[in-house]
Design brief:
The structure holds 2 protein chains of 2 kinds. Chain A is an alpha/beta fold. Chain A is 27% helix and 25% strand. The radius of gyration of chain B is 15 Å and the shape is globular. In chain B, 56% of the residues are buried. Classes of the chains: A alpha/beta, B alpha/beta. Chains A and B meet through helix 4, helix 5, helix 16 and helix 17 of A and helix 1, strand 2, helix 2 and helix 3 of B.
Chain lengths: 649, 144
């Protein structure tokens, strides 16, 4: 092998690197390496002049490999590999040495930081010495997409993708699509009816020729990678044929089982056979297997007897359906923080203390009280209502550290809605700060305070308890320095938004990361906000972070456009960093065959053979091979040993 | 190393690309400070860390070796970290057998979301290595 001519490009990243790493010394040390033919430092290597200088230097100095010592490869590996291509050399001979995230940002001592940066840079230079030029593997693309979650985020993403002519499978866990937005009464800052905005979109989803709707279904398993995923979806049986169901409601009249109605946040009850809402899509009843007396005509069978359409069939089985898709949008939404975590605010056990979503159902014309605001305990009109913001949010010591972002706005909306329903009522709002950034938002809050005569009290509530048929609220108004006691008829808690139940499981199934709060993690907080760390899987809505409807819709559209861009390509380039066998060393022991998680290695004529389409390049095989006969390309054992040496030099 | 300077253990840290390397990136983005003793080597998966790498690091003068990857069950390659965990237990026993303190080798599970934990893992490891002093048992004699 002829000696490499490597160029090392040291980035200052403004002062992000240069402040704690002596970049000139890094460049000087690298120049001392045997294979380094050129070094350069520059203040912003990723800027246009910086990138140009890399291309020019490669051409002028006849470089065949490149090491850029800069930020994490997650940020600019592609940038500089593209530059290598532009300069006419193979892009896989370009590697990044991360001296920012892994060095300059985490160490304050410049001398020690510089030493470490040199070790990191040297190790990557040594690695590049043995990098082979590789060609990306072109793979075909499955031109179908899957959207997981049928709330407003999933609906919007599915519609946008479907309208581009790409078939979409929309998977929803509940019996109807619509998600949280379908539970809302009105939306801020326009107070337009939530269902009037959402229902037409739900109908469109149902009718769209490119959308295949799978409700009451959950993703179970996934295999494959970007462009070609295979997803197993478990579709639970509803025991009702949606095509035959006439939604006549006769079945619920005879069903003897009464259980809390989760769609109404347990404010009302439902039968074992039920329809979540009148506007449900698909417009069909669902038989709750867990609540039903046993799907057995001998035990009950009343619903089946009364169904004139013959839609109910106890023998419809749950099934697992396999779908091949090229891209996935995850839009699994949010839940509210559990009231049980807030014992000082009743812990969910004090009557007439509701959460924000329950109050939405009280205000909603389709809700339990047909749009009359009545308190649950005695169905009287509440004359004093206390709204408490930041319940569970912004409390790093005990609850969620983050701001849930929408509560200031929806509490202002709740106060307005309450005043519209009960004009002579009194609304109090306890708040820490008002965060009303957004188009028309600040004006909306001002209207709540001024036109709707709502009393905003700056402070937290320390305790509430039931007293004489009311809820006594003890709090502090920090602006006047007074303690406040209010005998409220009803209390509404603006509980923190948390990732929906099951987010951890779906993240695990899809192998996408979560952040410290459990929300789905985006690939980059600024530059790749709708992509997960796994290629081909995108994020939308409150599953990624707390956000309101306009933001959710924007993000869903962005995720959809990413999917469309991906699936519009005829072929996808897959990184060729996969296993390679050295037949001369292979003894055919078969240990790598057992170690491979992807069943990508087989024995042929006593030698291991890698299936390039299946290999993901994890390297489990190479760590198992006793004779170093199998290696991942450009991450070979020899390369790692030389990197280790460089780290300890 | 001059005698005046306090002993600073030298660590090689094998980080899996998907979790711990991303976790170290998050530590960086969050500016969480930790000692600069560990030189990171990013590998595709902890399952790709051959026991030979660990011995090689000790042989080349490392005072401690860290292998850090995705939490068990979260491996990007399904089961690579299970394979790693199995091998690493054997490594611990081997090290003890050949007279290297097994505490010089450590495995940790740090996800992409755990920048704070990554910094803590490094900090703890450095502190735990200091009382052990330099590793001489496997270190190749310096050539003159």
């Amino acid at each position: 092998m002829s000696k490499k001519r490597t160029g090392v490009f040291v980035c200052h990243c403004g002062t992000n690197i240069a402040a704690t790493v002596d970049v000139a010394r890094v460049a000087k040390e690298m120049a001392g390496e045997d294979t380094v033919a050129f070094t350069q430092e520059y203040v912003y290597m990723c800027s246009e002049p910086g990138q140009e200088s890399v291309v020019q230097a490669i051409k002028d100095n006849k470089l065949d490999s490149v090491v850029v010592t800069c930020c994490s490869p997650n940020l600019h590996e592609k940038t500089f590999r593209d530059n290598a291509t532009r300069a006419g050399i193979n892009n896989f001979t370009c590697e990044i040495a991360n001296i920012r995230e892994q060095c300059s940002w985490v160490h304050a001592d410049k001398a020690k930081g510089t030493e470490k940066a040199i070790k990191i840079s040297r190790s990557v230079v040594r690695r590049v010495n043995r990098n082979q030029p590789l060609d990306a593997i072109a793979v075909s693309v499955t031109k179908r997409a899957m959207v997981i979650g049928g709330g407003i985020a999933g609906i919007q993403a599915a519609l946008d993708i479907a309208n581009a002519g790409i078939e979409v499978v929309l998977v929803e866990k509940q019996a109807t699509i619509g998600g949280r937005m379908l539970q809302l009464s009105e939306t801020f800052p326009t107070l337009d009816c939530s269902q009037c905005v959402l229902s037409p979109k739900m109908v469109e989803v149902n009718r769209h020729p490119n959308i295949r709707l799978m409700t009451y279904s959950e993703v179970q398993e996934i295999s494959g990678s970007v462009g070609n995923f295979r997803v197993k979806v478990h579709k639970r049986s509803t025991f009702v044929d949606p095509d035959k169901c006439k939604i006549c409601d006769h079945c619920t009249e005879v069903c003897p089982v009464v259980v809390p109605n989760e769609y109404e946040l347990n404010l009302t009850a439902r039968r074992a056979i039920y329809i979540p809402y009148a506007q449900a899509i698909p417009a069909s009843f669902t038989l709750d297997e867990d609540a039903c007396l046993g799907l057995n005509p001998v035990v009950c069978g009343k619903c089946k007897d009364v169904c004139e359409a013959g839609a109910i069939d106890y023998d419809i089985q749950s099934k697992t359906i396999t779908e091949d898709v090229g891209a996935i949008v995850v839009a699994t939404g949010f839940d509210l923080y559990d009231q049980e975590n807030m014992p000082e605010l009743g812990g969910g056990k004090v009557e007439d203390v509701l959460d924000g979503l329950q109050f939405e159902r009280l205000c909603s014309a389709s809700g339990a009280t047909k749009g009359h605001v009545l308190r649950p305990s005695d169905h009287t009109v509440p004359k004093n209502v206390v709204f408490i913001q930041c319940v569970g949010s912004r409390d790093p010591a005990k609850h969620c550290a983050y701001c849930s972002k929408i509560c200031c706005m929806y509490t202002a909306k709740h106060a307005q809605l309450y005043k519209h329903h009960v004009p002579d009522g009194r609304a109090y709002v306890f708040y820490i700060d008002i965060r009303s950034g957004g188009k028309g938002y600040e004006e909306f809050v001002q209207r709540t305070m001024e036109d709707n005569d709502t009393l905003y009290l700056r402070g937290r509530v320390s305790k509430l308890y039931r007293k004489d048929g009311k809820v006594r609220v003890l709090g502090t108004d920090t602006l006047s320095g007074q303690n406040v006691e209010i005998d409220a008829d009803m209390v509404v808690l603006a509980l923190a938004m948390v990732p929906s139940k099951g987010t951890a499981e779906i993240a695990k199934v899809l192998k996408i990361g979560r952040d410290k709060d459990g929300f789905l993690a985006e690939a980059h907080p600024k530059l790749r906000p709708v992509e997960s760390v796994t290629g081909g899987i995108y994020l939308a809505g409150a599953a990624q972070a707390p956000k309101d409807i306009p933001e959710t819709v924007s993000q869903a559209g962005a995720a959809a456009s990413k999917v469309i861009a991906l699936l519009s390509q005829a072929k996808l380039n897959r990184a060729p960093l996969i296993a390679k066998v050295r037949p001369s060393h292979c003894t055919g022991c078969g240990m790598c065959v057992d170690a491979c998680p992807f069943i990508a290695i087989r024995l042929e004529n006593g030698k291991a053979v890698v299936n390039e389409a299946l290999c993901e390049g994890c390297g489990s095989c190479s760590a198992t091979c006793l004779r170093a006969a199998i290696d991942v390309k450009n991450v070979t054992q020899l390369q790692i040993h030389e990197m280790i040496e460089a780290c300890l030099a | 190393m001059s005698d005046q300077q306090p002993y600073e253990p030298r660590i090689v840290a094998f980080l899996c690309k998907w979790c711990s390397s991303a976790g170290s990136d998050l530590a960086g983005v969050s500016r969480i400070q930790y000692p600069p003793n560990a030189a990171p080597i990013t590998v595709p998966c902890t399952g790709a860390v051959s026991p030979m790498y660990i011995l090689s690091a000790f042989n080349k003068g490392a005072d401690g070796v860290l292998v850090s990857g995705c939490h068990i069950g979260d491996c990007h390659y399904i089961e690579g970290n299970f394979l790693a965990r199995r091998k690493m237990h054997l490594i611990m026993e081997l090290l003890e057998f050949i007279g290297v303190e097994p505490n010089r080798f450590r495995m940790s599970w740090v996800s992409a979301a755990e920048g704070t934990k990554f910094a803590q893992v490094i900090t703890d490891f450095v502190e735990d290595l200091k009382p052990l002093g330099p590793q001489e048992r496997l270190k190749k004699a310096e050539r003159a």
